[in-house]
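Action item from last week, closing it out:
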Amino acid sequence: MVACSLLCGSGCFGQNLMPASGPGGMVRLFTSDAAILEAQEIRKDIPCTATPVKPILGFDLKFHAGYDVSIPLKELAGSDNQLTMVFRVSPEHHPDEPVYFSQHFNVPAIDADAGGSTLLSGMFDLGEGKYHVDWLMRDRAERICSSNWDLDATLSPKDKQIALDIAADAIQPTDTEPFKQEPPVSRMQGDSPLNVKVMVNFAPQDSYSATLQPIDTTALVSILRSISREPRITKFSIVAFNMQEQRVIYRQEAASQIDFPALGKALRSLNLGTVDLKRLTQKHGDTEFLTNFITQEMNVEQDHPDAVIIAGPKVMLENALPQDTLKQLGDNVKYPVFYMNYNLNPQVNPWRDAIGSAVRYLKGAEYTISRPRDLFFAWSEIIGRIVKSKFGRTAVASPSAAQ
């Protein structure tokens, strides 16, 4: 199988939403394309195999669906070419309101005796519901491969209370920019606004990996977005760090909104494939860094947060954080502490990590985030506990203040 990057100039998974430009808001298609889609005709002028990608709920609380198409390289032999995909997705309850997409792949010159095949892919996002897809691919010689299939994006009964970030029956292009700014949130006004501090370890699941995988980035950013969308929180302090490089990457103090574009720009400075010789000479440098980091960030005298939330993959160290440091920290921490441990395969590594041990010592709560539902239910419980803690302290403080 040949990697799809052989044929792609701008990424295999990107697709363009076709805007309505015709009369009555209709999408304007080539007559031949429209006829094939309308007839739901199956053609194999190019002997390709289109395989639907079933809807999967992502950490961003949207269903992600799409297709993979396999094409024998010998069918693309010759001078440079271009493959164009045109497809429409129609919700079952609104079949007269389809959404159209197009996608283009540049094909370099390929030898006539080329063996193997290439795999091309496309993705789009869905809300809960059932859908029908009509799909075609054509080359410059107007050879056609076409197919159609049905999709079912349905939450399981135990997940029905999850509030998705996309409306039912909605169809959207997949967003390829994970650090796009959030729309403004209408914050609750009152005497007891919430102020939280969030520390995120932007690191891959595999501590030896040289890259931060897209799934890891999406999950960690989704944790931040869940927190940022809470209307009861009016002040955010964000600290992004990386245990492999043992450094703070980004900091935002006491802001009314998380600056996602600035965070994304800062994360581009990560260089996980490079080893700092200075760190190699430090026998327990990772333990020392984490100890100093947690001590500094949780000894908050000015900000007085209502809660501290730590998020990220497990941090397994040879040496635990010093007990005397944790004891001193525990004497000063007067707010609840939460750990959202991002762990895709908890069965592989079920042991408590260094951050989890510290949070446990501080009488905090740890939540394992392995699936989107874990994120939704963990945050629902965390914000409830923060509110309860805040109002509890306020209720206790009020009588003494009145005296």
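Closing note: The longest helix spans residues 372-402.
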